[in-house]
């Protein structure tokens, strides 16, 4: 089963919590995603059934290799899109909301091309400066 946008949000959150704290509890996930713990439990059970993680009630959860791989990729996608939007001059106050709005609607091919573009600008800072100067002249 392919992960839905909601499943991706949970996998991304779980992956980040495990990276930061070494574990991810239902309460931590609920706090981070601003949802009820009962919603987290339902989704965690769904993710368990889809083999993205192993969940034992009252014992915690562990990402499977499949879940870990996808979680890592989802975090990369999120960070890449934040960097890209910052690079092209999107106001910082909008970046997180914009990334949340678009990340599930782009193909991985589009993400790869955005990655190429970010790399292109990072390889030669004068390219980025030229883009930023162009942005200033078109405001």
Automatic annotation (TrEMBL):
Domain HTH dtxR-type, chain residue ranges per copy: 1-64
Any one Gene Ontology cellular component term annotated for this protein: cytoplasm
The keyword Protein biosynthesis belongs to this UniProt entry's keyword annotation: no
Subcellular location: Cytoplasm
Keywords from the UniProt entry: Activator, Cytoplasm, DNA-binding, Manganese, Repressor, Transcription, Transcription regulation
GO molecular function, one term: transition metal ion binding
Transmembrane helix in keyword set: no
Stored InterPro entries: DtxR_MntR_Metal-Reg, Fe_dep_repressor, Fe_dep_repressor_sf, HTH_DTXR, Iron_dep_repressor, WH-like_DNA-bd_sf, WH_DNA-bd_sf
A Pfam family hit: Fe_dep_repress
Gene3D superfamilies for the chain: Iron dependent repressor, metal binding and dimerisation domain, Winged helix-like DNA-binding domain superfamily/Winged helix DNA-binding domain
Domain of life of the organism encoding this protein: Bacteria
Coiled-coil blocks: none
Complex formation: Homodimer.
Family statement drawn from the similarity comment of this UniProt entry: Belongs to the DtxR/MntR family.
NCBIfam families: PRK03902.1 (NF003025)
Protein name from the UniProt record: Manganese transport regulator
């Amino acid at each position: 089963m392919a992960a839905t946008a909601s499943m991706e949000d949970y996998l991304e959150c779980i992956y980040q919590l495990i990276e930061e704290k070494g574990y991810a509890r239902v309460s931590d996930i609920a706090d981070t995603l601003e949802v009820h713990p009962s919603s987290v439990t339902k989704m965690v059970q769904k993710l368990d059934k889809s083999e993205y993680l192993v969940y034992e009630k009252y014992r915690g959860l562990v990402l499977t290799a499949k879940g870990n791989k996808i979680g890592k990729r989802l975090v990369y996608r999120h960070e890449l899109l934040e960097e890209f939007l910052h690079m092209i001059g999107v106001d910082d106050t909008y970046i997180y909301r914009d990334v949340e709005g678009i990340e599930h609607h782009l193909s991985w091919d589009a993400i790869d091309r955005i990655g190429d573009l970010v790399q292109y600008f990072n390889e030669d800072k004068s390219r980025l400066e030229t883009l930023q100067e162009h942005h200033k002249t078109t405001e």
